[in-house]
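ugh ok so i messed up the first submission bc i forgot one of the chains. this is the corrected input, ALL of the components this time, i swear. 557 residues overall. if the numbers dont match what u have on ur side tell me asap before i send this to the collaborators (the ones from the other lab, u know who)
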Amino acid sequence: MQEYKCKIKNITNLNSDTVYLTIECPDIANMAKPGQFVNISADKFLKRPFGIASVDKENGTFCIGVKIVGKGTKIISQFAVGKEIDVLGPLGNGFDADMYQDIILVAGGTGVFPINFAKEYYTKLGKNVKVIQGFRSKDQIIMSDDNCIVSTDDGTYGIHGNCCDALKTLDWTQFNNPVILTVGPLPMMKFTGLLAKELNVPCFVSMEQRMACGIGICLVCICKIKAEEEGKPFDHKRCCKDGPVFPYEEVIW
Amino acid sequence: MSRIGVKVGNVDLKSPIILASGTCNFGHELSEYYDLSILGGLSSKGLTCKPRVGNEGVRVAECSSGMLNSVGLQNPGVDYFIEHDLDYMRSLGCGVIVNAAGHSFEDYIEIVSKLNKHKDKIDALEINLSCPNVKAGCMSVGSDPNQVAQIVSLMRKETDLPLWIKLTPNVTDIKPIALAAQNSGADAVVLINTLLGMAIDIKTRRPVLRNNTGGYSGPAVKPVALRMVAECSKVLDIPIIGCGGISTYEDVLEFMIAGSSAVEIGTASLIHPTCPVDITKDLEDYCESNNINLKDLTGTLELW
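and heres the new structure output, hopefully the right one now
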Protein backbone atom coordinates (compact mmCIF):
# COMPACT_ATOMS: atom_id res chain seq x y z
CA MET A 1 0.00 0.00 0.00
CA GLN A 2 1.12 3.55 -0.55
CA GLU A 3 0.06 7.17 -0.48
CA TYR A 4 -0.45 8.63 -3.94
CA LYS A 5 -0.11 12.12 -5.38
CA CYS A 6 -3.05 12.33 -7.75
CA LYS A 7 -4.33 14.90 -10.23
CA ILE A 8 -7.95 15.96 -10.29
CA LYS A 9 -9.04 15.36 -13.88
CA ASN A 10 -12.59 16.66 -13.76
CA ILE A 11 -15.10 18.29 -11.44
CA THR A 12 -18.86 18.41 -12.02
CA ASN A 13 -21.55 20.07 -9.93
CA LEU A 14 -24.32 17.57 -9.23
CA ASN A 15 -26.49 20.04 -7.34
CA SER A 16 -26.12 23.13 -5.17
CA ASP A 17 -24.07 21.40 -2.47
CA THR A 18 -22.59 18.31 -4.11
CA VAL A 19 -19.69 17.92 -6.52
CA TYR A 20 -18.34 14.89 -8.38
CA LEU A 21 -14.56 14.56 -8.73
CA THR A 22 -12.68 12.41 -11.21
CA ILE A 23 -9.21 11.64 -9.88
CA GLU A 24 -6.32 10.04 -11.74
CA CYS A 25 -4.79 6.99 -10.06
CA PRO A 26 -4.42 3.79 -12.09
CA ASP A 27 -3.53 1.69 -9.02
CA ILE A 28 -6.68 2.65 -7.13
CA ALA A 29 -8.81 2.23 -10.27
CA ASN A 30 -7.42 -1.29 -10.65
CA MET A 31 -7.54 -2.40 -7.03
CA ALA A 32 -10.78 -0.85 -5.75
CA LYS A 33 -13.75 -2.99 -4.73
CA PRO A 34 -17.22 -1.57 -4.12
CA GLY A 35 -17.71 -0.34 -0.57
CA GLN A 36 -14.08 0.72 -0.25
CA PHE A 37 -13.10 4.34 0.28
CA VAL A 38 -10.22 6.78 -0.19
CA ASN A 39 -8.82 9.28 2.32
CA ILE A 40 -7.86 12.52 0.59
CA SER A 41 -6.09 15.72 1.61
CA ALA A 42 -8.40 18.69 2.05
CA ASP A 43 -5.81 21.42 2.65
CA LYS A 44 -6.79 21.12 6.30
CA PHE A 45 -5.06 19.05 8.97
CA LEU A 46 -6.69 15.66 8.58
CA LYS A 47 -7.62 13.88 5.38
CA ARG A 48 -11.29 13.28 4.54
CA PRO A 49 -12.78 9.88 3.67
CA PHE A 50 -15.05 9.34 0.64
CA GLY A 51 -16.62 6.17 -0.73
CA ILE A 52 -15.44 5.31 -4.23
CA ALA A 53 -18.30 6.10 -6.63
CA SER A 54 -16.91 4.67 -9.86
CA VAL A 55 -13.71 3.43 -11.47
CA ASP A 56 -12.45 3.60 -15.04
CA LYS A 57 -9.61 1.09 -15.39
CA GLU A 58 -8.90 2.04 -19.01
CA ASN A 59 -8.30 5.68 -18.20
CA GLY A 60 -6.84 4.96 -14.77
CA THR A 61 -9.30 7.14 -12.88
CA PHE A 62 -11.80 6.86 -10.07
CA CYS A 63 -14.60 9.15 -8.90
CA ILE A 64 -15.91 10.39 -5.57
CA GLY A 65 -18.94 12.47 -4.65
CA VAL A 66 -18.48 15.26 -2.13
CA LYS A 67 -21.41 16.83 -0.32
CA ILE A 68 -20.53 20.04 1.48
CA VAL A 69 -21.11 19.41 5.18
CA GLY A 70 -18.22 21.29 6.80
CA LYS A 71 -15.02 23.21 6.21
CA GLY A 72 -13.06 20.33 4.69
CA THR A 73 -15.73 19.35 2.17
CA LYS A 74 -16.24 23.05 1.32
CA ILE A 75 -12.54 23.38 0.47
CA ILE A 76 -12.58 20.19 -1.60
CA SER A 77 -15.65 21.40 -3.49
CA GLN A 78 -13.62 24.43 -4.56
CA PHE A 79 -10.59 22.48 -5.81
CA ALA A 80 -9.62 23.19 -9.43
CA VAL A 81 -9.09 20.69 -12.20
CA GLY A 82 -5.36 19.85 -12.37
CA LYS A 83 -4.79 20.23 -8.64
CA GLU A 84 -2.61 17.54 -7.07
CA ILE A 85 -3.93 15.92 -3.92
CA ASP A 86 -2.64 13.25 -1.50
CA VAL A 87 -4.70 10.08 -1.64
CA LEU A 88 -4.63 6.95 0.49
CA GLY A 89 -6.58 4.05 -0.89
CA PRO A 90 -8.37 1.90 -1.63
CA LEU A 91 -9.16 1.50 2.08
CA GLY A 92 -11.48 -0.67 4.12
CA ASN A 93 -12.95 -4.08 3.45
CA GLY A 94 -15.66 -3.28 0.90
CA PHE A 95 -18.65 -5.46 0.07
CA ASP A 96 -18.09 -9.15 -0.39
CA ALA A 97 -21.19 -10.20 -2.32
CA ASP A 98 -19.78 -12.12 -5.29
CA MET A 99 -21.46 -15.34 -4.08
CA TYR A 100 -24.96 -13.89 -4.37
CA GLN A 101 -26.92 -13.81 -7.62
CA ASP A 102 -29.42 -10.98 -7.09
CA ILE A 103 -27.90 -7.84 -5.65
CA ILE A 104 -30.32 -5.32 -4.13
CA LEU A 105 -28.63 -2.01 -3.48
CA VAL A 106 -30.21 0.53 -1.13
CA ALA A 107 -28.82 4.08 -1.02
CA GLY A 108 -29.69 7.18 0.97
CA GLY A 109 -27.89 10.52 1.19
CA THR A 110 -24.26 10.34 0.05
CA GLY A 111 -24.66 6.55 0.05
CA VAL A 112 -25.65 6.93 -3.60
CA PHE A 113 -21.93 7.21 -4.45
CA PRO A 114 -20.57 3.92 -3.12
CA ILE A 115 -23.81 2.24 -4.23
CA ASN A 116 -23.19 3.51 -7.76
CA PHE A 117 -19.82 1.71 -7.81
CA ALA A 118 -21.51 -1.45 -6.50
CA LYS A 119 -24.07 -1.17 -9.30
CA GLU A 120 -21.36 -0.86 -11.97
CA TYR A 121 -19.26 -3.64 -10.48
CA TYR A 122 -21.99 -6.25 -9.99
CA THR A 123 -23.64 -5.46 -13.33
CA LYS A 124 -20.28 -6.16 -15.00
CA LEU A 125 -20.12 -9.47 -13.14
CA GLY A 126 -23.45 -10.41 -14.77
CA LYS A 127 -25.49 -10.17 -11.58
CA ASN A 128 -29.12 -9.14 -11.48
CA VAL A 129 -28.79 -5.71 -9.86
CA LYS A 130 -31.66 -3.60 -8.46
CA VAL A 131 -30.98 -0.11 -7.13
CA ILE A 132 -33.24 1.67 -4.65
CA GLN A 133 -32.52 5.29 -3.85
CA GLY A 134 -34.07 7.56 -1.26
CA PHE A 135 -33.99 11.37 -1.47
CA ARG A 136 -35.67 14.17 0.43
CA SER A 137 -37.28 15.64 -2.70
CA LYS A 138 -37.11 15.62 -6.49
CA ASP A 139 -34.52 18.43 -6.68
CA GLN A 140 -32.11 16.36 -4.56
CA ILE A 141 -32.01 13.42 -6.96
CA ILE A 142 -28.46 12.61 -8.12
CA MET A 143 -26.64 9.56 -9.51
CA SER A 144 -29.92 8.14 -10.75
CA ASP A 145 -31.26 6.61 -13.98
CA ASP A 146 -34.43 4.99 -15.26
CA ASN A 147 -33.43 1.61 -13.86
CA CYS A 148 -33.29 2.93 -10.30
CA ILE A 149 -36.34 2.75 -8.04
CA VAL A 150 -36.54 6.20 -6.47
CA SER A 151 -38.40 7.28 -3.37
CA THR A 152 -38.79 10.82 -2.09
CA ASP A 153 -39.77 11.82 1.43
CA ASP A 154 -42.13 14.51 0.14
CA GLY A 155 -43.54 12.49 -2.75
CA THR A 156 -42.35 14.92 -5.42
CA TYR A 157 -40.89 12.02 -7.41
CA GLY A 158 -41.26 8.23 -7.49
CA ILE A 159 -42.53 6.39 -4.45
CA HIS A 160 -43.79 8.67 -1.67
CA GLY A 161 -41.83 7.56 1.38
CA ASN A 162 -38.39 6.24 2.20
CA CYS A 163 -36.15 3.43 0.95
CA CYS A 164 -37.91 0.85 3.10
CA ASP A 165 -41.26 1.78 1.56
CA ALA A 166 -39.62 1.30 -1.83
CA LEU A 167 -38.08 -2.03 -0.76
CA LYS A 168 -41.54 -3.29 0.22
CA THR A 169 -42.80 -2.75 -3.33
CA LEU A 170 -40.38 -5.38 -4.70
CA ASP A 171 -41.70 -8.84 -5.49
CA TRP A 172 -39.43 -10.83 -3.19
CA THR A 173 -40.55 -14.19 -4.61
CA GLN A 174 -38.79 -13.31 -7.88
CA PHE A 175 -35.28 -13.19 -6.44
CA ASN A 176 -32.71 -15.91 -6.65
CA ASN A 177 -30.15 -16.02 -3.82
CA PRO A 178 -30.51 -12.30 -3.01
CA VAL A 179 -28.48 -9.98 -0.77
CA ILE A 180 -29.13 -6.40 0.34
CA LEU A 181 -26.22 -3.96 0.43
CA THR A 182 -26.99 -0.57 1.93
CA VAL A 183 -25.17 2.73 2.44
CA GLY A 184 -26.78 5.79 3.97
CA PRO A 185 -27.93 7.43 7.18
CA LEU A 186 -27.96 5.15 10.25
CA PRO A 187 -31.78 4.98 10.69
CA MET A 188 -32.21 4.11 7.02
CA MET A 189 -29.67 1.27 7.23
CA LYS A 190 -31.16 0.06 10.50
CA PHE A 191 -34.69 -0.21 9.09
CA THR A 192 -33.43 -1.70 5.83
CA GLY A 193 -31.67 -4.34 7.93
CA LEU A 194 -34.80 -5.03 9.98
CA LEU A 195 -36.81 -5.53 6.83
CA ALA A 196 -34.10 -7.80 5.41
CA LYS A 197 -34.28 -9.87 8.57
CA GLU A 198 -38.06 -10.22 8.22
CA LEU A 199 -37.55 -11.32 4.63
CA ASN A 200 -34.72 -13.63 5.66
CA VAL A 201 -32.36 -11.93 3.19
CA PRO A 202 -28.72 -11.32 4.22
CA CYS A 203 -27.90 -7.63 4.60
CA PHE A 204 -24.61 -5.73 4.75
CA VAL A 205 -24.33 -2.13 5.93
CA SER A 206 -21.57 0.45 5.51
CA MET A 207 -20.84 2.34 8.74
CA GLU A 208 -19.62 5.92 8.94
CA GLN A 209 -17.81 7.67 11.77
CA ARG A 210 -15.47 10.65 12.08
CA MET A 211 -12.14 9.40 10.91
CA ALA A 212 -8.48 10.41 11.17
CA CYS A 213 -5.88 8.03 9.70
CA GLY A 214 -8.21 5.80 7.65
CA ILE A 215 -5.76 2.89 7.93
CA GLY A 216 -6.52 1.45 11.37
CA ILE A 217 -3.78 2.94 13.55
CA CYS A 218 -5.53 5.64 15.58
CA LEU A 219 -8.73 3.89 16.74
CA VAL A 220 -10.95 6.98 16.58
CA CYS A 221 -13.56 5.83 14.02
CA ILE A 222 -15.14 3.11 16.09
CA CYS A 223 -18.55 1.49 15.81
CA LYS A 224 -20.21 -0.82 18.29
CA ILE A 225 -20.17 -4.44 17.18
CA LYS A 226 -21.49 -7.45 19.07
CA ALA A 227 -18.62 -9.15 20.88
CA GLU A 228 -17.63 -12.69 20.00
CA GLU A 229 -16.60 -13.29 23.58
CA GLU A 230 -19.41 -14.36 25.88
CA GLY A 231 -20.28 -11.97 28.68
CA LYS A 232 -18.69 -8.99 26.93
CA PRO A 233 -21.33 -6.40 25.98
CA PHE A 234 -19.68 -5.17 22.78
CA ASP A 235 -16.47 -4.49 20.88
CA HIS A 236 -15.39 -1.19 19.40
CA LYS A 237 -14.32 -2.05 15.85
CA ARG A 238 -12.61 0.34 13.49
CA CYS A 239 -14.85 1.57 10.65
CA CYS A 240 -11.80 2.23 8.49
CA LYS A 241 -9.99 -1.10 8.83
CA ASP A 242 -12.42 -3.72 10.20
CA GLY A 243 -15.22 -2.09 8.13
CA PRO A 244 -16.73 0.06 6.83
CA VAL A 245 -18.90 -2.88 5.75
CA PHE A 246 -20.38 -5.09 8.48
CA PRO A 247 -23.14 -7.70 8.44
CA TYR A 248 -26.31 -5.97 9.67
CA GLU A 249 -26.82 -8.36 12.57
CA GLU A 250 -23.32 -7.77 13.98
CA VAL A 251 -23.90 -4.03 14.50
CA ILE A 252 -25.30 -2.73 17.78
CA TRP A 253 -27.82 -0.11 16.62
CA MET B 1 26.59 2.74 14.03
CA SER B 2 25.34 4.94 11.22
CA ARG B 3 25.32 8.70 11.49
CA ILE B 4 21.74 8.73 12.72
CA GLY B 5 22.15 6.01 15.36
CA VAL B 6 21.44 7.14 18.93
CA LYS B 7 21.53 5.79 22.47
CA VAL B 8 18.85 6.19 25.12
CA GLY B 9 20.68 5.17 28.26
CA ASN B 10 21.84 1.64 27.50
CA VAL B 11 19.42 1.16 24.64
CA ASP B 12 20.99 1.43 21.17
CA LEU B 13 18.61 2.65 18.47
CA LYS B 14 19.53 2.70 14.79
CA SER B 15 17.64 5.96 14.38
CA PRO B 16 16.20 8.53 16.80
CA ILE B 17 12.72 7.92 15.39
CA ILE B 18 10.26 5.94 17.48
CA LEU B 19 6.61 5.64 16.53
CA ALA B 20 4.56 7.07 19.38
CA SER B 21 2.17 4.92 21.32
CA GLY B 22 -1.41 5.06 20.10
CA THR B 23 -0.49 6.11 16.57
CA CYS B 24 0.86 2.81 15.25
CA ASN B 25 -1.09 0.10 17.09
CA PHE B 26 1.38 -2.84 17.18
CA GLY B 27 2.84 -2.22 13.72
CA HIS B 28 0.70 -4.54 11.59
CA GLU B 29 -1.09 -1.81 9.62
CA LEU B 30 1.90 0.46 8.96
CA SER B 31 4.07 -2.43 7.83
CA GLU B 32 1.77 -2.63 4.80
CA TYR B 33 3.17 0.79 3.88
CA TYR B 34 6.88 0.56 4.68
CA ASP B 35 9.58 -1.58 6.23
CA LEU B 36 9.48 -0.66 9.91
CA SER B 37 13.03 -1.93 10.43
CA ILE B 38 14.30 1.54 9.42
CA LEU B 39 12.90 2.89 12.70
CA GLY B 40 14.65 3.30 16.00
CA GLY B 41 11.62 1.74 17.62
CA LEU B 42 7.90 1.34 17.85
CA SER B 43 5.99 2.06 21.03
CA SER B 44 2.96 -0.21 21.34
CA LYS B 45 -0.59 0.92 21.83
CA GLY B 46 -0.99 1.67 25.56
CA LEU B 47 -1.74 -1.57 27.37
CA THR B 48 -3.70 -2.13 30.54
CA CYS B 49 -4.05 -5.23 32.75
CA LYS B 50 -7.57 -5.89 31.48
CA PRO B 51 -8.83 -5.24 27.92
CA ARG B 52 -10.50 -1.86 27.47
CA VAL B 53 -13.16 -0.94 24.88
CA GLY B 54 -12.27 2.73 25.29
CA ASN B 55 -14.52 5.77 25.15
CA GLU B 56 -17.73 6.26 23.19
CA GLY B 57 -17.49 8.11 19.85
CA VAL B 58 -17.12 10.84 18.63
CA ARG B 59 -13.44 10.38 19.48
CA VAL B 60 -11.75 12.88 17.16
CA ALA B 61 -11.98 16.58 16.44
CA GLU B 62 -9.83 18.46 13.97
CA CYS B 63 -8.33 21.68 15.33
CA SER B 64 -5.90 24.29 14.07
CA SER B 65 -2.70 22.45 13.08
CA GLY B 66 -3.68 19.46 15.13
CA MET B 67 -6.38 17.23 16.46
CA LEU B 68 -8.08 16.18 19.66
CA ASN B 69 -8.58 12.52 20.44
CA SER B 70 -10.43 10.75 23.20
CA VAL B 71 -9.79 7.11 22.41
CA GLY B 72 -9.55 6.25 26.10
CA LEU B 73 -6.85 3.57 25.93
CA GLN B 74 -8.82 1.03 23.89
CA ASN B 75 -6.58 -2.03 23.93
CA PRO B 76 -6.78 -5.82 24.02
CA GLY B 77 -5.12 -6.14 27.43
CA VAL B 78 -1.57 -7.12 28.28
CA ASP B 79 -2.17 -10.91 28.27
CA TYR B 80 -3.62 -10.85 24.76
CA PHE B 81 -0.74 -8.62 23.63
CA ILE B 82 1.88 -10.98 25.00
CA GLU B 83 0.22 -13.93 23.31
CA HIS B 84 -0.61 -12.34 19.94
CA ASP B 85 1.44 -9.21 19.24
CA LEU B 86 4.72 -9.18 21.13
CA ASP B 87 6.49 -11.69 18.88
CA TYR B 88 5.25 -9.79 15.85
CA MET B 89 6.65 -6.52 17.22
CA ARG B 90 9.97 -8.27 17.90
CA SER B 91 10.03 -9.51 14.30
CA LEU B 92 9.80 -5.98 12.88
CA GLY B 93 13.53 -5.37 13.30
CA CYS B 94 13.22 -2.13 15.24
CA GLY B 95 13.35 -1.39 18.96
CA VAL B 96 10.42 -2.87 20.88
CA ILE B 97 8.99 -0.35 23.32
CA VAL B 98 5.97 -1.57 25.25
CA ASN B 99 3.66 1.14 26.54
CA ALA B 100 1.68 0.41 29.69
CA ALA B 101 -0.90 2.29 31.72
CA GLY B 102 -2.99 1.64 34.79
CA HIS B 103 -5.68 2.90 37.12
CA SER B 104 -3.95 2.15 40.38
CA PHE B 105 -0.48 1.45 41.75
CA GLU B 106 -1.41 -2.26 41.80
CA ASP B 107 -2.27 -2.12 38.08
CA TYR B 108 1.11 -0.66 37.19
CA ILE B 109 2.96 -3.24 39.27
CA GLU B 110 0.96 -6.12 37.81
CA ILE B 111 1.49 -5.07 34.20
CA VAL B 112 5.21 -4.41 34.67
CA SER B 113 5.74 -7.78 36.34
CA LYS B 114 3.83 -9.54 33.55
CA LEU B 115 5.90 -7.81 30.85
CA ASN B 116 9.10 -8.46 32.77
CA LYS B 117 8.61 -12.20 32.20
CA HIS B 118 9.17 -11.48 28.49
CA LYS B 119 12.07 -9.09 28.91
CA ASP B 120 14.19 -10.86 26.32
CA LYS B 121 11.74 -9.57 23.67
CA ILE B 122 11.42 -6.01 24.99
CA ASP B 123 13.90 -3.14 24.72
CA ALA B 124 12.15 -0.72 27.07
CA LEU B 125 8.94 -0.20 28.97
CA GLU B 126 7.26 3.14 28.41
CA ILE B 127 5.04 3.92 31.35
CA ASN B 128 2.10 6.19 30.64
CA LEU B 129 1.58 8.39 33.68
CA SER B 130 -0.22 10.91 31.56
CA CYS B 131 -3.27 9.78 29.60
CA PRO B 132 -5.81 12.61 29.68
CA ASN B 133 -8.69 10.44 28.46
CA VAL B 134 -9.18 7.95 31.25
CA LYS B 135 -11.45 8.87 34.14
CA ALA B 136 -9.83 8.40 37.56
CA GLY B 137 -6.81 7.75 35.45
CA CYS B 138 -3.17 8.08 35.08
CA MET B 139 -2.90 11.82 34.44
CA SER B 140 -3.71 12.59 38.06
CA VAL B 141 -0.90 10.28 39.20
CA GLY B 142 1.48 11.89 36.73
CA SER B 143 0.73 15.40 38.01
CA ASP B 144 1.97 14.75 41.51
CA PRO B 145 5.74 14.34 42.10
CA ASN B 146 5.17 12.27 45.28
CA GLN B 147 2.92 9.78 43.53
CA VAL B 148 5.28 9.63 40.55
CA ALA B 149 8.15 8.86 42.92
CA GLN B 150 6.17 6.12 44.65
CA ILE B 151 4.96 4.45 41.50
CA VAL B 152 8.32 4.54 39.73
CA SER B 153 10.06 3.06 42.80
CA LEU B 154 7.50 0.25 42.96
CA MET B 155 7.92 -0.54 39.26
CA ARG B 156 11.70 -0.35 39.58
CA LYS B 157 11.57 -3.26 42.05
CA GLU B 158 9.65 -5.36 39.51
CA THR B 159 12.00 -5.08 36.55
CA ASP B 160 15.47 -4.25 35.36
CA LEU B 161 14.14 -3.39 31.91
CA PRO B 162 14.69 0.27 30.99
CA LEU B 163 11.76 2.28 32.40
CA TRP B 164 10.80 5.29 30.28
CA ILE B 165 8.23 7.47 32.00
CA LYS B 166 5.85 9.38 29.71
CA LEU B 167 4.75 12.58 31.39
CA THR B 168 1.81 14.89 31.01
CA PRO B 169 2.26 18.53 29.98
CA ASN B 170 -0.93 19.42 31.86
CA VAL B 171 0.96 20.64 34.92
CA THR B 172 2.25 23.98 36.20
CA ASP B 173 5.86 22.87 36.34
CA ILE B 174 7.05 19.64 34.77
CA LYS B 175 10.59 19.73 36.20
CA PRO B 176 9.83 18.42 39.74
CA ILE B 177 7.82 15.58 38.20
CA ALA B 178 10.61 14.62 35.81
CA LEU B 179 13.10 14.81 38.69
CA ALA B 180 10.87 12.62 40.85
CA ALA B 181 10.85 10.01 38.09
CA GLN B 182 14.63 10.21 37.69
CA ASN B 183 15.34 10.01 41.41
CA SER B 184 13.08 6.99 41.80
CA GLY B 185 14.89 4.94 39.20
CA ALA B 186 13.50 5.92 35.81
CA ASP B 187 15.92 5.39 32.91
CA ALA B 188 14.41 8.11 30.72
CA VAL B 189 11.44 10.44 30.47
CA VAL B 190 9.22 10.86 27.42
CA LEU B 191 8.04 14.45 26.95
CA ILE B 192 5.19 15.07 26.23
CA ASN B 193 1.82 13.33 26.11
CA THR B 194 -1.14 15.28 24.69
CA LEU B 195 -2.47 18.59 25.98
CA LEU B 196 -5.94 18.49 27.48
CA GLY B 197 -8.33 20.38 25.22
CA MET B 198 -11.88 20.85 23.98
CA ALA B 199 -13.71 21.57 20.73
CA ILE B 200 -17.28 22.84 20.62
CA ASP B 201 -20.00 22.33 18.01
CA ILE B 202 -21.69 25.73 17.74
CA LYS B 203 -24.87 24.20 16.32
CA THR B 204 -25.50 21.80 19.19
CA ARG B 205 -23.59 23.83 21.82
CA ARG B 206 -22.01 20.62 22.96
CA PRO B 207 -18.40 19.45 22.90
CA VAL B 208 -17.54 17.66 19.64
CA LEU B 209 -16.00 14.81 21.63
CA ARG B 210 -18.42 12.50 23.42
CA ASN B 211 -15.89 12.48 26.28
CA ASN B 212 -16.15 16.33 26.39
CA THR B 213 -12.37 16.75 26.48
CA GLY B 214 -9.52 15.09 24.65
CA GLY B 215 -5.80 15.15 24.07
CA TYR B 216 -4.47 17.79 21.66
CA SER B 217 -1.65 16.68 19.38
CA GLY B 218 -0.01 17.70 16.13
CA PRO B 219 2.25 20.57 15.03
CA ALA B 220 0.32 23.03 17.24
CA VAL B 221 1.75 21.48 20.42
CA LYS B 222 5.38 21.40 19.25
CA PRO B 223 6.44 24.70 20.88
CA VAL B 224 5.05 23.54 24.24
CA ALA B 225 6.84 20.20 23.97
CA LEU B 226 10.13 21.83 22.93
CA ARG B 227 9.99 24.24 25.86
CA MET B 228 9.41 21.37 28.28
CA VAL B 229 12.25 19.31 26.80
CA ALA B 230 14.59 22.29 27.08
CA GLU B 231 13.54 22.97 30.68
CA CYS B 232 13.95 19.37 31.78
CA SER B 233 17.21 18.93 29.89
CA LYS B 234 18.80 21.51 32.17
CA VAL B 235 17.91 19.68 35.37
CA LEU B 236 17.93 15.97 34.43
CA ASP B 237 20.79 13.51 34.18
CA ILE B 238 18.73 10.81 32.47
CA PRO B 239 17.89 10.95 28.75
CA ILE B 240 14.79 12.59 27.31
CA ILE B 241 12.71 11.26 24.45
CA GLY B 242 11.04 14.25 22.80
CA CYS B 243 7.54 14.02 21.45
CA GLY B 244 4.97 16.52 20.23
CA GLY B 245 4.06 17.64 16.75
CA ILE B 246 7.13 16.32 14.93
CA SER B 247 6.49 16.03 11.20
CA THR B 248 9.77 17.00 9.50
CA TYR B 249 13.48 16.33 9.97
CA GLU B 250 13.94 19.93 11.12
CA ASP B 251 11.50 19.23 13.93
CA VAL B 252 13.63 16.23 14.96
CA LEU B 253 16.74 18.42 14.97
CA GLU B 254 15.02 21.04 17.12
CA PHE B 255 14.03 18.41 19.67
CA MET B 256 17.53 16.97 19.76
CA ILE B 257 19.15 20.37 20.16
CA ALA B 258 16.67 21.07 22.99
CA GLY B 259 17.94 17.98 24.80
CA SER B 260 16.28 14.87 23.38
CA SER B 261 18.28 11.70 22.81
CA ALA B 262 15.52 10.28 20.64
CA VAL B 263 12.10 11.42 19.45
CA GLU B 264 8.64 10.03 18.89
CA ILE B 265 6.47 10.66 15.86
CA GLY B 266 2.76 10.32 16.40
CA THR B 267 0.06 12.35 14.77
CA ALA B 268 2.14 12.91 11.62
CA SER B 269 1.76 9.19 10.84
CA LEU B 270 -2.01 9.64 10.84
CA ILE B 271 -1.70 12.21 8.05
CA HIS B 272 1.09 10.64 5.99
CA PRO B 273 1.75 7.05 7.09
CA THR B 274 5.18 6.96 5.45
CA CYS B 275 6.44 10.30 6.80
CA PRO B 276 9.00 8.52 9.05
CA VAL B 277 10.63 7.16 5.87
CA ASP B 278 11.09 10.67 4.47
CA ILE B 279 12.28 12.05 7.81
CA THR B 280 14.83 9.23 8.17
CA LYS B 281 16.21 9.92 4.69
CA ASP B 282 16.34 13.67 5.35
CA LEU B 283 18.18 13.11 8.65
CA GLU B 284 20.75 10.90 6.92
CA ASP B 285 21.27 13.54 4.23
CA TYR B 286 21.56 16.27 6.86
CA CYS B 287 24.20 14.35 8.83
CA GLU B 288 26.10 13.52 5.66
CA SER B 289 26.15 17.05 4.29
CA ASN B 290 27.03 18.56 7.68
CA ASN B 291 29.49 15.79 8.49
CA ILE B 292 28.08 15.16 11.95
CA ASN B 293 26.68 12.32 13.99
CA LEU B 294 23.14 13.05 15.01
CA LYS B 295 23.63 12.08 18.65
CA ASP B 296 26.18 14.86 19.04
CA LEU B 297 23.37 17.40 18.66
CA THR B 298 21.61 16.33 21.85
CA GLY B 299 21.42 19.18 24.35
CA THR B 300 23.49 21.63 22.32
CA LEU B 301 20.95 24.40 22.85
CA GLU B 302 22.45 27.64 24.09
CA LEU B 303 19.89 29.89 25.72
CA TRP B 304 20.11 33.63 25.35
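quick check: Chain B touches chain A at residues 22-25, 29-30, 32-33, 45, 53-54, 57-67, 69, 71, 74, 218, 269-274 (CB under 8 Å). that seems consistent at least. The mean pLDDT of chain B is 96.
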